Amino acid sequence: MSPEQLRSLLISRIRDVADYPKPGVTFKDITPLLADPLAFTALTDALANRCAEYGATKIVGLEARGFILGAPVAVRAGVGFVPARKAGKLPGPTLGQNYALEYGAAEIEIHADALSAGDRVLVVDDVLATGGTAEASVELVRRAGAQVAGVCVLLELGFLGGRERLAPVLGAVPLDALVRV
Ligand SMILES: O=P(O)(O)OC[C@H]1O[C@H](OP(=O)(O)OP(=O)(O)O)[C@H](O)[C@@H]1O
Ligand SMILES: Nc1ncnc2[nH]cnc12
């Protein structure tokens, strides 16, 4: 499948929901994509290819939708999966990071011993909106002593400026969106 065919397939399986979860927000619902095995497999394969390209040794997936996308990518790419969870859910000692997102604020945590100095991490999430979540995850990975190899999202909402916000944080680290609107 060409990149353009992949893009068309993926975008055709993302549904717009007006005024959710707040008035004025158009929510990008990926559940139709998850329900289509062809589209979900194509997405998983594309992200697993990025993982190999960037030489990543671990996937960090962001709760909750980043878990759904990131876990099969880790299996397909043959690397470990590290969950970045919303605060208070991990049982061991954690590192945490507060952040704001398009429609609220939150804190994510990873286990303090989940990553080591030799790890190269691919951060996987479904949507890049304001970039608050991605920025927090990059900070967490670096505070855990690992290197960020790349950030990959299914969908970038370009008009919210996440890419511009992340540019100084990422430097030469690639930020890859399979679909941009
Ligand atoms: O770029 P930002 O403005 O930070 O927004 C992007 C984040 O928002 C959504 O997560 P949400 O916290 O709604 O979590 P969910 O996956 O649990 O639905 C989405 O899955 C991204 O993680
Ligand atoms: N508009 C949006 N749709 C889906 N997920 C999001 N995360 C942040 N903004 C979002």
Automatic annotation (TrEMBL):
Residues 34-155 form the Phosphoribosyltransferase domain. One of its GO terms (biological process) is AMP salvage. It holds the Pfam family Pribosyltran. One of its GO terms (cellular component) is cytoplasm. It comes from Streptomyces tardus. The lineage of its organism: Bacteria, Bacillati, Actinomycetota, Actinomycetes, Kitasatosporales. Its EC number is 2.4.2.7. HAMAP family: Aden_phosphoribosyltr (MF_00004). It comes from the Bacteria. This is Adenine phosphoribosyltransferase.
